[in-house]
Design brief:
The complex is a heterodimer. By secondary structure, chain A is mostly helical. Helix content of chain A is about 75%, strand content about 0%. The chains are: A mainly alpha, B alpha/beta.
Chain lengths: ~280, ~250
């Protein structure tokens, strides 16, 4: 019993690990609920592309010594503009345009990251390191939770209406395109903040793992949002514990823990279906 | 009387291409209109143009008053975890202030609307677990909460059980008596004869007027090869293929 207690408490005795716990718990608390809407609006590919496209902005921000959030935000705007421009070509299409632009931006980011004047390795940018979070990173995550949570709460009804019935939403005064844009802006901000913890390649796990783990078991959107936050926090904690005790990379451990939660959720969902379960989507 | 809904020479479509053309009609308060047309004939396009979602490519469209749209239930996300009450409450968004939390008065209005449609016992039921007829009634309750003067309904009786259809028909009569205007897209030619006006649409307007205009040649021009004529005891009964498309 005392061994188990020691295993649970030991990581908290280290300041570095405690900060990592705080970072991943804060990110899980906001990215999980955001992920519920990302999955609902079928934006997973877009969010993955967005997180990858931030790489050059993050590298430039590091070289310039400014906040990664600023560099990430500029990169997100540039990526969105380039994708919109490329997608205008009828023979290209939005999916191909996204693939080409994101690949190009990742390549540009890698070039910049390998430059001698870049102070950080590309590995940390791609895969993150919650054990190396700065006070600024923690502050950004701590601010993201109440601000992002407040905005999500305010947007809850339009988000629900546009997702539930995109054809009828305009007659309710809700513009689905604007709602989707507001969601993407929120997600972009969360991705910029999450990159320090999980890197631009693994940050997506924070968004898709928790809602996939919750699946269709929640009876209400609010219940699904709260459950996604809980799984996000639990996955983050589990990942840091695994990293501490098994001497694994912390960011990758958190991402794997969240993906494992999603896999368990899918497995449970396949085996156990509530008698009055929600039927499959038809749109 | 002043027209609540009016279209003059309306053309609308997607990507600059017209899906409907030459649509001209007007409806006053308390009038019902059956919108008839084949799959892909432009019924949904007309509804979207009336809602202001599609800019007219030609002509004009005007609605005096708020419009509510009632989709087919299978066009909604049945996997989204919302209760019947949640859906009815979405109607309060039409009053603006979307950021405001739901108030008790909103809940009362939504419960009253659901009770009016015989769903008082299903308030907390998950929308996706209800029958097709119950789901259609929930969407109608949402329109009631919107308190719109004009209701645009996309095949509201399609796949609905007889009990729900009866209650929906009764509601339509009540709404007409309240002075609301109903525009109902349907494939059911026989039920269309019970409306005040009919509009036949096959990419262009074939006919608009009293149900007596539904003569054989009008129906043939409206439906073409989709028109199936069945013989009934009291003469020919016309039935229409009902596979649904976008537009």
């Amino acid at each position: 019993m005392s061994e188990l207690l020691d295993a649970l408490l030991d990581p908290w005795r280290s300041g570095i690990t405690t900060r990592a716990f705080a970072e991943v718990m804060l990110l899980g608390a906001i990215c999980g609920p955001l992920g519920f809407w990302v999955l609902g609006y079928r934006l997973s590919y877009g969010v993955e592309s967005l997180s990858h496209a931030l790489l050059p902005g993050l590298v430039v921000a590091m070289i310039a010594g400014v906040a990664p959030l600023a560099g990430g935000a500029i990169a997100a705007v540039v990526a969105a503009g380039l994708i919109a421009l490329a997608a205008r070509a009828e023979r290209v299409g939005p999916d191909t345009a996204t693939a080409v632009v994101v690949t190009g931006l990742v390549g540009l980011g890698a070039l910049l990251a390998f430059a001698p004047e870049t102070p950080k390795s590309i590995g940390a940018l791609l895969f993150g390191d919650p054990l190396a979070v700065s006070d600024g990173d923690l502050l950004a995550a701590a601010l993201l939770v109440p601000i992002g949570g407040g905005l999500l709460t305010a947007l809850h009804r339009p988000l629900s209406a546009a997702l539930f019935d995109s054809l009828g939403a305009p007659s309710l005064g809700v513009r689905p395109d604007r709602v989707r844009l507001a969601l993407l802006l929120l997600v972009a901000a969360a991705v910029c903040v999450s990159v320090q913890g999980l890197g631009s390649l693994l940050a997506l796990a924070l968004f898709v793992g928790p809602p996939l783990a919750v699946g269709r078991r929640a009876r209400s959107a609010t219940g699904a949002l709260l459950a996604s936050a809980a799984v996000g926090i639990a996955g983050g904690l589990g990942g840091i514990y695994a990293s501490y005790h098994l001497d694994l990379a912390a960011g990758a451990s958190v991402a794997l823990a969240l993906c494992a939660a999603a896999a368990v959720g899918a497995l449970v969902g396949a085996i156990w279906r509530p008698a009055a379960g929600v039927r499959a989507a038809t749109t | 009387m002043i027209a609540l809904v009016e279209a003059r020479g309306l053309a609308a479509g997607y990507g600059g291409r017209a899906a409907i053309e030459q649509v001209t009609f007007a409806l006053e308060g308390g009038q019902t209109l059956a919108l008839l047309g084949p799959n892909g004939g432009g019924k949904t396009t007309l509804l979207r143009a009336l809602l202001g979602e599609l800019e007219p490519l030609a002509g004009t469209v005007a609605l005096a008053g708020r419009a509510a749209y009632v989709p087919q239930t299978d066009r909604t996300r049945l996997d989204f975890p919302v209760s019947a009450l949640d859906v009815a409450l979405m109607g309060t968004l039409a009053r603006g202030r979307w950021w405001r939390p739901v108030r008790r008065a909103d809940r009362d209005a939504a419960r009253t609307a659901l009770a009016r449609l015989g769903l008082a016992d299903e308030v907390d039921s998950t929308f996706g677990t209800l029958s097709g007829g119950q789901r259609q009634r929930v969407l109608l309750a949402r329109a009631l909460v919107q308190d719109a003067r004009v209701l645009l309904l996309d095949e509201p009786l399609s796949g609905v059980d007889p009990a729900s259809a009866e209650r929906i028909d009764a509601l339509f009569a009540e709404l007409r008596d309240e002075g609301r205007t109903l525009l109902v897209a349907t494939h059911d030619v026989e039920s269309a004869r019970g409306y005040d006006r009919v509009l036949c649409l096959n990419r262009t307007q074939v006919a608009f007027g009293a149900p007596s205009c539904l003569a054989q040649d009008v129906l043939e021009r409206t439906y073409g090869a989709e028109l199936v004529v069945l013989e009934g005891a009291d003469g020919p009964v016309r039935a229409i293929m009902t596979q649904h498309h976008e537009h």
